[in-house]
Amino acid sequence: MKKKSLVVLDAISVGLLAIWLGLAVAHFIFSATLTVFHIDIAAWIAFGMSLLLSGLPRWLHEIADTEIIGPFRLWVAAGATALILCMASTFIATPKMKAIRRIQSVNQNMSAQQHDSLVRDYTKVNNFSVQFLIIRAVLAAGMALGLKKLPYISSTSH
């Protein structure tokens, strides 16, 4: 694969990561409009497509790092970590928050102790969700900035 093709794919990856980073920041400003569900779906797309567009061609063409732990391995590890956090947010935190809200809306005549317990549980899960979002935002920024450091020359072409 030519360097020019990789540069174009890297630019698309940077664009996807930057758009998602913008959505994550917008979530804190317009939290009523952008739900965690929308941010999670966008994160799956941004991180997954970035790994496919910039990571897969380098892996298929055996473009490797010259060091044992180089920029490419770190970049792929950051992408995998982001996808694991997407999984935790999508399949653990968001359904738990929805379940707590559903219980609160259905059971209007609960005791104050039950209500306080649900509020504490919701706050705890929401804090985890926000932490997942912030960590993914940092990973997105690192991945976008780290694309310039990825190798472009195949290790078999030397």
What's the SSE blueprint?
Layout: H1 3-29, H2 36-60, H3 71-106, H4 112-146
What keyword list fits this structure?
0% strand; mainly alpha; 158 residues; 78% helix; 4 helices
Specify the biggest β-sheet. Answer: none
Number of helices, counting only DSSP H or I runs of 4 residues or more: 4
Give me the Rg, rounded: 20 Å
Spans where pLDDT lies below 50 across 5 or more residues: none
Structural class: mainly alpha
Number of domains: 1
Determine the fraction of residues in helical runs and give it as a percent range.
Answer: over 70%
Please trace the helix and strand order, writing H or E for each element.
HHHH
Terminal CA distance reads: 15 Å
Provide an overview of this structure.
- The chain is mainly α and 158 residues long.
- The chain has one domain.
- 78% of the residues lie in helices and 0% in strands.
- It contains four helices and no strands.
- Helix 1 runs antiparallel to helix 2 (36-60), helix 2 packs antiparallel against helix 3 (71-106) and helix 2 (36-60) packs parallel to helix 4.
